[in-house]
Amino acid sequence: MSTRDPRSIWRRMPVEQMDDEQERNAGGVLAKSLGLWQLTAIGVGGIIGVGIFSLAGLVAAGDADNEGVGPAVLIAFLIAGLASAAAALSYAEFAGMIPRAGSAYTYGYVALGEIIGWFIGWDLLLEYIAIVAVVAIGISGYLGKLLDNLGLTLPTSLTASAEEGGVVNVPAVLICLLVTFILSRGTKTFGRFELVAVGVKILLILGIIGLGVFYIEAGNYDPFLPSGFGPVLTGAATVFFAVFGYDAMSTAAEEAEDGKRHMPKAIILSLAIAMLLYVAATLVLTGMQDYRDIDPTAGFASAFESVGLSVVASIISVFAVLSILTVMLTFLLGVTRVWFSMSRDGLLPPWFAKVDRTGTPQRVTWIAGIGSAVLAGVFPIRAVADLTNIGILSAFIVVCVAVILFRYTQPETPRSFRLPLMPFVPAFGVLASLFLIWQLPWETWARFGVWLLLGFVIYFGYGRRHSLLNPDSPNHRRQPVDD
């Protein structure tokens, strides 16, 4: 459908058009090297990390702008997890039907039309880069705690943003660049690293839980809701950041050896494993130390220090730094694959869709990595975390709506997984996501609005005309397909 037709913004990418030969003509081809357990490891790696090691302590203890929720941080995680589960099932149905790079961008493009796909893809570019930055800031906090325990204290000017009294968070910047280098080595190398690192991470968390239960004091759970239920809902919107790693994992569907069969299983497995560990870990954290004394940047390290286990606190800090790297890797993978997919479809310049001999899109990998380093260096953690959440919640709404419409408009399309209780489960996902978005501060809405406005200009200035679904596209590489 030509851009001369105003309906062209609603043209949809046909499922049957997504085969390897067409993708090869449109740009590069991603290497298929990920099995079920590697995919699950990527999902768990994206979900578990800063949520346990940083955000749990931040929400429990509170900060200058938000009251601490204390032991009720457990409820905040459960609310976020319940909302995330509804979206996870929607992602699972789409991933089993369309195992293609792009995640929510691709699903929105196929089911709702190009304009919706564009805005969700544009949204994810910012959100995934911001997530990498948030995690880098979290790692920087644990690294600072570790150095303090060793008697080495870095000046605040080099470990905090200007808003926090520093200049640039140098450790966070360097961590972003390190992760970018690891991902640039190729998906196969990344998959192996992720599998080992996630195994170490799970063992660490199980060790923390197993040791920490012996130091729980029941009195620390009283009061369980010290600030009422309102701050818990705000906390749920913040920790939602910690329960959607499977979203970024689904961007790697095209690199799965058997995406239609393995992707739905990996999505559900990764969320189930993560939520079990979150529940146990938050109970231990708030049981070991009074919530008002928890260090919001290094919660478990401060909890073990409070019971006289400084050596254990140092060990936790070391392994927290290593294990949280998996979260950064997962989301940096996510942004590069969304960006690659949008460029391959013509909505962004095809220059970004080029891959090297290992099947890795090096250009977007380094651009995204440097962008995350800039955010990590100059912004405080909560501002960046809230920015990521509004974007991901928006993507969840689109995917939940899309799976309902697609089930009824194209019921004959083969599905390796069908989510139960249609349409109630995805409808709940939409309502829960809208509710959590409403809890976010107005500053987050303003920043998000500016980013979407910029995307609006780029789409109508470039993407709409260059889209490969436009028969008059200047970079047309395949036969046009009308709606």
Description of the structure:
This protein is mostly helical and 483 residues long. Helices cover 65% and strands 1% of the residues. It is built from 17 helices and two strands. It has helices spanning 20-26, 36-47, 50-61, 73-97, 104-111, 114-149, 170-184, 187-212, 230-239, 245-249, 259-288, 299-306, 310-344, 362-378, 381-409, 424-438, 442-466, and strands at 62-63, 66-67. α4 (73-97) packs antiparallel against α11 (259-288), α5 (104-111) runs parallel beside α15 and α6 (114-149) packs across α7. The chain is globular, with a radius of gyration of 22 Å. 57% of the residues are buried. The model is unreliable at 20-27 and 478-483 (pLDDT under 50).
